[in-house]
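Here is one chain, start to finish.
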Amino acid sequence: MRGCTLRALLFGAGLMAAVALPSTALAQADDRPPSTRAIGEEYHIEVGGAIWRPSLFGLIASEQFGIVGSQIDFVSDLGFTKTQFLDGRLVLRPSKKSKLRFQYTPVSYTADSTLSRQIIFNGIRYPVNVPIKSTFEWTVVRVGYEFDFFYTDRGYVGFLIEGRYTQMSASLKSPLNDEATVAKAPLPAFGLVGRAYPLKNVSITAEVSGFELPDIDEDYQANYVDIDIYGTVNFSRHLGVQVGWRRMNTFLRVKTDQGDFRFQGLWFGGALRY
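Its structure:
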């Protein structure tokens, strides 16, 4: 009987401790001041995606057999129109101020048109009034490192160092000819990025990066500027929706092929974080 009473007392004490400990821990947590850190900044992995529908300006030219190519306009010559594209981003954040960034931006246009003027592409002459099917693909892969040298609970300023792989391809097909050209180049980039939180769950981010290849060889010329400004509304530390405006200016010349492009416009997307 005495053993049963002792077991009952031990069981009751253990039950009271199990109830009291969580209550004590909760009371201590309630005594701590609320966090001032912005929502959306506590993560190690961020995956983002966006739909971008930029306005279009572009010129391409391709020389072959010593025959200078025409400056071919994307809109007036080839009939390209505004098209939406997907853009993918990945951020790995090993520490509060350091980020490894990856971005993949594929741009692709296709159109059927009739030439209103004679053009020369890849050494081949395309006469007036010939129907053509044209395609243009421009892909940029960005791999970079960001260090936020100034960091607070409500914003930061950092610098970017990137490597960019750019590939351009174009083709013109007519009943008489079928020509295509490809140019590709790995290039560095440098830039600045800043973010501010006017509200704890709302941020505004601005990013500028670019590069100009030194004038060493006339067969290889490149310069570009990438501007991205966007706002994010974070519903939780794991999920946010975004809207932004982006502009990419690029001039690329690789031996006999060159392109001069400008894409700019609004984009809509979101981000998942862990």
